[in-house]
UniProtKB/TrEMBL annotation:
This is WDR60 protein. One of its GO terms (cellular component) is cilium. GO terms for biological process: intraciliary transport. InterPro entries: DYNC2I1, WD40_repeat_dom_sf. It comes from Chunga burmeisteri (Black-legged seriema). GO terms for molecular function: dynein heavy chain binding; dynein light chain binding.
């Protein structure tokens, strides 16, 4: 609820990494790992901002932030085929009105 993210290992109750206030205090609505690139994850906050984290590029801050204008995004899901090295990775955004948007991610965050 405060925008903090914690990365845990299954064998420990203590986080390996913790990022406080990663969304400027906005609650996190959804967080998902990329299906095609293990070091990348996506975060959706309550202000309809999507943050892209690539832990191989920067483990302190997100590498990109995209604001979705016009309408509140209520959830997100990722599309991709991990068994295919084609680098296609999409984000499905569900908006408050019921509209669904699909956006494709740049190859640099999608390629294995």
């Amino acid at each position: 609820s405060d925008g903090s993210i914690r990365l845990h290992q299954m064998t420990s109750e203590y986080p390996l990494m913790q990022w406080n206030d990663s969304t400027n205090g906005q609650p996190i609505i959804a967080l998902q790992w990329a299906l095609t690139r293990p070091a990348v994850f996506f975060v959706l906050d309550a202000s309809s901002n999507i943050y892209i984290w690539d832990l191989l590029e920067n483990d302190l801050l997100p590498v990109a932030k995209q604001t979705i204008p016009s309408e509140n995004v209520v959830t997100m899901a990722l599309l991709g085929e991990p068994e295919k090295p084609n680098g296609l990775l999409g984000i499905v955004l569900a908006k408050e009105s019921g509209q669904i948007d699909i956006q494709y991610v740049k190859e640099k965050w999608a390629l294995p």
